[in-house]
Amino acid sequence: xxxxxxxxxxxDTHYVSKRSYVPGSKSFARREKGDQIALKASPEILxxxxxxxxxxxxxxxxxxxxxxxxSGDRCxxxxxxxxxxxxxxxxxxxxxxxxTHDYCGMGDDENFFxxxxxxxxxxxxxxxxxxxxxxxxYHDFGPAQSDSVDPESGSYSLKLFEGVRLIAINDxxxxxxxxxLFDEGFAWIENEIDKxxxxxxxxxxxxHHPVISPWDVFAHVVDFEMFGGYKRLxxxxxxxxxxxxxxxxxxxxxxxxxxxxxGRYFYDVSTTALVSAAGCMRKxxxxxxxxxxxxxxxxxxxxxxxDTGGKSFHDYIYRLNFIGKIxxxxxxxxxxxxxxxxxxxxxLPTEKLAAHKGLVKFGVxxxxxxxxxxxxxxxxxxxxxxxxxxxxFGAEKALPKLFAIGACVFAGNGxxxxxxxxxxxxxxxxxRLDKICKTLKLEAVAKLLPEGQTLADVAEPFIYNNxxxxxxxxxxEL
Length: 478
Ligand SMILES: [Fe+2]
Ligand SMILES: [Fe+2]
Known about the structure:
Strand order of the largest sheet: 6-7-8-11-13-15-14
Radius of gyration: 23 Å
CATH class of the largest domain: Alpha Beta
Bound molecules: fe (ii) ion
Mean pLDDT: 95
Low-confidence stretches: none
CATH topology of the largest domain: Purple Acid Phosphatase, chain A, domain 2
């Protein structure tokens, strides 16, 4: 027997209304460069994905987990809600949660987002949405269909399908260093899970901020970016048998498992930002007869009605991101210095680079000429790489391989699994560097790393997916 029901998940849509900047404005172009996500194309990207959802007549539900707009401005919210209404008009049930980009900081918490209208050369204040207004604005997209709303955070609980309950958590807190829940919020979630368990319903959780860190080093360095109270949620999910939470915020496509000392576990399925370096959405299918939740990934090739200058959707948004931009501008340092500085502005510290032109050119040339063979030999004794594998690199350069790893930071699924010569070469280098740090007693490096971890440990999940094996898909027993 099989009884599948599907829904789509999108997150971090960072929508910017066309009404919030002068077309062709330099100041807005600078803003987009600084944010490193597709802002100008955000309406067309959203609509391109929504068209896919509308075309899928088997799937009637859509969940969007926060950072709906980019800077809490009112006109972006208005236009975004009009897009949501196009989905509901097409017969879809739409549920959203909100997050820090969805309201403006007014000095009463730590949120620093400001609504602005971008003129040709600068910006001026624009009408903004305050935090307390979000519940009213988005009432029709979740709370109105729910049978319980948490008064503390506006989180809500609803029957998603027969036998399946969605608990959508709104981050409460101070807009930056605590984006999560407090005692009352946790008590409400616990009660909702208990009621669902008693009714024989399977529970799916959704929240904007990460519950499991995409990589250990993330929580180590920026713990405040995690869901506020995440360890408490770990314990609750394990104790109550909730097997999955869907998250966003990090803009990283990532699936990780947490398992407690008693072998109880759950997965955090994090979806990359729709407008980020790897923009995609996920399709989730819950089968209540087989008791499983299947997650897959849906990508698009083209942004409808938007000129990407001949680039594919993926290439267009990847080049807006720091890593893609560096990959694009680095060769210009040797061929066209002025173009290099102009393209790198807003992404790299161009003033400092301009002051050290000779040194920058020397460094770029060295980096471009670095061969895989040289790296592999440096780490040979530490990386289990054979002479044959080293020789097989021939004249291959290291930089394109490093960019191949960089391109997967947000997209997930690092490119070089342990059986590849690249993995052995890079891990050999990292292990040798660990040895050097240990010998030289470099405490500063050790402090940057999670307790008990080495540089090799920290880098490995970027080189290949050592989490679940696939960041794009999973089948979870509920
Ligand atoms: Fe975001
Ligand atoms: Fe966020």
